[in-house]
Amino acid sequence: MPPFFSRNDAGDLQIEQVDASEIVARYNSPTYVYSRAAIESAYRALSEAFGERAHRICYAVKANSNIGILSVLARLGAGFDIVSYGELARVMAAGGDPGRTVFSGVGKSAAEIQGALEAGIGCLNVESEAELRRIAEIASEMQQKAPISLRVNPDVDARTHPYISTGLKDNKFGIAIDDALPLYEWAHAHPALEVTGIDCHIGSQLTDVSPFRDAAERVMALAHRLAERGITLEHLDLGGGLGIRYTDETPPAAADWIEAIRSVVDADPLARELPIWIEPGRFIAGPAGALLTRVEYLKPGEHKSFAIVDAAMNDLMRPALYGSDMAIVPAGQAPGERQPGTWEIVGPICETGDFLGHERAMDLAEGDLLAVLGAGAYGFSMASNYNTRPRPAEVLVDGGTCHEIRRREPLDSLWALEQLPTTD
Ligand SMILES: *Cc1c(COP(=O)(O)O)cnc(C)c1O
After folding, report:
1. How far apart are CA 411 and CA 285, in angstroms?
2. Span 5-34+286-407 CATH architecture
3. Which of 374, 210, 371 is nearest to 294 (CA)?
4. I want to staple 2 with a disulfide (CB 3.0 to 4.6 A). Which of 34, 146, 248, 287 is the partner?
């Protein structure tokens, strides 16, 4: 069970001091529930592992962008990593500081670049030569100096799912590390650009520190070559990707991730004074959240038995999109006889790919509550309204208190922006 998740005396799931069944009674199902203490403790564990070394933890907003979650992190002093102007607007709505925010992403539009510069963005992480030129042009027009890092592609294999591996030379992200030098020289000489750092991000859900350490080594080697040319940096940004346990993975602990970085940078005289930034999303939000769902129907069969629940792939896309295995545990038992079985846990959507879990051995009854664990990251933030299903409510538990940080979408809001054609 993730930290701050436990079982009460009746054996039912509790999030901090609140029963899952109480949350569903109040907010209905499916509902996302998050533990504030779990978010704070993950953030603090990373921050404390840096010890005296200057650092910044830029929470990757796309993992879970609810402003209630962002405000918890802003209060802890977090920076943010964003991939759209919309995410920057959320950071500001949550009380976060644009000056402590980095803007990543391969396709920033001119309007997004301009908006970020107007807001006083901390750093633009540039992913191509064409983008660097566009930023220089926009900043010149605005008579501003744009703070930039190049996102370099260190060509290390993160050994994760191909869809979430981003640091190999054949994918769309970043600038090949060997091509970075002339671009840095060009940027350094440009009056509207201020070179502030180097950035990399090699993939997501890494379960081993060695690719992370290899990437840090390659980034340091580049920092040395820049220093030789008189280009001094103000930070190194080593990206996110710190993996979590979904079922039986054994990912490194917070201290191990940070130790892997420090083993590279602490010994290096050039890096000793350089602040280290990281961009974890999943590591902070993932273990803190669960999707609560109710069993609607049991449909036992000769070959496969289905437990049809009220959450579906539109609410939680990871299993359908990546084939991810996520732990699904009992969260509250309905009265009545239980049926033992090995169940396909599926949703009501008209797609065969609509499943939350395969072959789960459990005793179930209609009306039971289940919890999909580790759903705090890339859960709600990837949810859609497919099949005209309102997205779930989101509840933040803080000790014994529940905060409804997003209410369930009212049905008519789903077509509120639509219109009947004006002719017959
Ligand atoms: C998605 C992303 C992250 C966060 O990845 P996690 O695996 O959630 O830690 C960090 N930086 C960039 C540039 C990203 O695209």
Report:
1. 28
2. Beta Barrel (2.40)
3. 371
4. 287
Domain ranges in the chain with CATH number 2.40.37.10: 5-34+286-407
Distance 205 CA to ligand 1 centre (A): 9
Catalytic residues: 350
Atom of ligand 1 nearest to the CA of 199: 13
pLDDT at 369 over 80: yes
pLDDT value for 163? 59
Closest CA to 240 of 179, 294, 281, 185: 281
Check the annotation: does 337 bind a ligand: no
Ligand 1 atom nearest to CA at 206 = 7
What's the pLDDT tens digit per position in 217-255? Answer: 999 999 999 999 999 999 999 999 999 999 999 999 999
Q: How far, in Å, from the CA of 204 to the mean position of ligand 1?
A: 6
Domain 65-280: which topology?
TIM Barrel (3.20.20)
pLDDT, tens only, 1-44: 999 999 999 999 999 999 999 999 999 999 999 999 999 999 99
Does residue 94 sit in helix, strand or coil?
coil
97 C-alpha to ligand 1 centroid (Å): 19
CA distances from 108 to 99, 111, 124, 125, 164 (A): 18, 8, 10, 10, 20
Q: Give residue 323's region: left, alpha or beta (phi > 0; psi -120 to 50).
A: left
User: pTM to 2 decimals?
Assistant: 0.96
Quote the ligand 1 centre to 94 CA distance (angstroms): 20
Q: Is 351 annotated as a binding residue?
A: yes
Q: Is the pLDDT score of 303 beyond 80?
A: yes
The pLDDT value recorded for residue 162 is 62
Give residues (CB < 6 A) around ligand 1. Answer: 60, 62-63, 81, 83, 104, 201, 204-205, 239-242, 279-283, 377
The atom number, within ligand 1, closest to the CA of 286 reads 8
Phi, psi of 227 (to 5 degrees): -60, -40
User: Which pLDDT band holds residue 141 (cuts at 50, 70, 90)?
Assistant: very high
Q: In which residue ranges of the chain is CATH 3.20.20.10 found?
A: 65-280
What mean pLDDT do residues 96-104 have?
A: 98
Nearest-CA residue for atom 10 of ligand 1: 240
What's the CA gap between 372 and 159, in Å, rounded?
25
